[in-house]
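In response to reviewer comment 3 from the previous cycle, which asked for concrete evidence that the modeling workflow produces usable outputs, we include below a single protein chain processed end to end. The sequence was submitted unchanged, and the resulting structure tokens are shown without manual editing.
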Amino acid sequence: MTYTTTRDGTRIAYQLQGEGPVLVLLAGQANSHHWWDSVRVDFHPVRSTLTLDYRGTGESDKPDTLHSTE
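The workflow returned the following structure tokens.
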């Protein structure tokens, strides 16, 4: 698991797999990166895939503060 940190200090988990140009796979906001588990490997012969866990989902931090999708 790899993390990046937002300006307010929240850690966001992301996963980069495969080789080649990056294809960003975004799940619905209430889902974690696992939403893509059954299909992401299909892209790997020609693309890398980048998935993430939105704030409050999956392996990302779940702060008790208000936030938006901005």
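The mean pLDDT is 92. We consider this sufficient to address the reviewer's concern, and the full set will be provided in the supplementary archive.
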